[in-house]
Write a structure and sequence with these properties.
This protein has about 325 residues and is an alpha/beta fold. The protein folds into 2 domains: about 140 residues, NAD(P)-binding Rossmann-like Domain (Rossmann fold); about 170 residues, Dihydrodipicolinate Reductase, domain 2 (2-Layer Sandwich). Helices cover about 35% and strands about 30% of the residues. The chain is built from 10 helices and 15 strands. Helix 4 packs parallel to helix 5, helix 5 runs antiparallel to helix 10 and helix 6 runs parallel beside helix 7. The longest helix has 17 residues.
Length: about 325
């Protein structure tokens, strides 16, 4: 399988590049053919660091010359839609970073370009080992119908993005994944901090899922710590999950299972594992290329990611109530 990568910035170098190099090292016939960035020097550094054969500064030139079997796209959100549509219009399978379009209009344009072409959205929390273990344990206890309530907390330090929804989508989607259900209704509250910059705000969601479970999500981008923590309540048992992102405060992560007030099980993250493994980038990369090799549909698809984009888009417009 011949692979090209588009976008060689910090995120690609920190997570996608290491995951791709690791996959290539373990799979004969898997070729990191070329990488591309508008900054030619950065593309060449990426090539040398992760073992790509060639580097380019023009996407069209790279795709025409290399004729890859698959493409990975990691570019800033304003460019995702146009570049993704270009790649898919060439019939090339695509792994694209979140958000898959800044709004539903862009996502649907990408979906139309994709048609039946295999693709996957890089919503990596779905592949973080401890998140998957929490979901596995929930499934053994009755699945979505057994879940009563879920809380998701995401905090960051000095993130003054005018639109934090592009990051909040990770929590929005992780709740859908863990709950095994879509959102039915959501109420939004905002605490704005105009003195810190336009659009800076804490964001709070109170939701009801289609399974009947309730959910509360909080996003605090200018707090004092980088964490993502989840609480899941069932009858007589609860799960407390600390997702290890970016080698930050909670790394390497922990999952606690409590039954009737007693600790029934504790799963610790692998302290020796790099952050791209703990955060799910390694597993999502493996899942995408394994699915292509086996002729399976990768997941999550644009269709599966659509409601996560829909909920995130409400935050952009400071909507207060939303129903599916």
């Amino acid at each position: 399988m011949k692979v090209c990568h588009i976008g060689c910035g910090e995120h690609a170098a920190g997570f996608h590049g290491p995951a791709q190099a690791r996959y290539a090292a373990g799979h004969a016939g898997f070729e990191l053919a070329a990488c591309c960035d508008l900054d030619a020097a950065r593309a060449d550094r990426h090539r040398q660091q992760f073992g790509f054969a060639r580097s380019y500064s023009d996407v069209g030139a790279m795709l025409s010359a290399e004729r890859p079997d698959a493409v990975v796209l990691v570019v800033p959100e304003p460019f995702t839609c146009a570049v993704a549509c270009d790649v898919l219009s060439r019939g090339l399978p695509l792994l694209l970073e979140k958000p898959p379009g800044r709004n539903l209009e862009e996502l649907d344009r990408i979906r139309e370009a994709a048609g039946a072409i295999p693709h996957q959205v890089a919503l990596n929390r779905r592949y973080a080992p401890l998140v998957r273990e929490a979901r596995r344990r929930l499934d053994t206890r009755g699945g979505p119908e057994a879940l009563q309530h879920i809380q998701y907390e995401m905090t960051r330090v000095d993130r003054r993005d005018p639109d934090f929804s592009a990051t909040a989508i990770h929590g929005i989607d992780a709740v859908r994944y863990l709950a095994g259900a879509d959102y039915a209704q959501v109420r939004f509250r905002y605490r704005e901090f105009p003195e810190l910059g336009p659009g800076v705000a804490n964001i709070f969601l109170d939701a009801v899922m289609t399974s009947g479970a309730t959910a509360q999500l909080s996003f605090c981008p200018v707090a004092g710590v980088v964490v993502e923590r989840v609480t899941l309540h069932l009858k007589d048992e609860s799960f407390y999950l600390r997702i290890p992102m970016w080698n930050a405060y909670d790394s390497p992560g922990r999952l606690e299972h409590v039954q009737k007030g007693r600790l029934a099980a504790e799963v610790l993250g692998d302290a020796a594992a790099p952050s791209f493994v703990l955060g799910g980038f390694d597993a999502e990369t493996e899942a995408f290329f394994d699915a292509l090799a086996a002729g399976r549909a990768p997941s999550p698809s644009l269709r599966e990611a659509r409601q996560s984009v829909a909920v995130a888009e409400q935050i952009q417009h400071r909507v207060k109530e939303w129903s599916a």
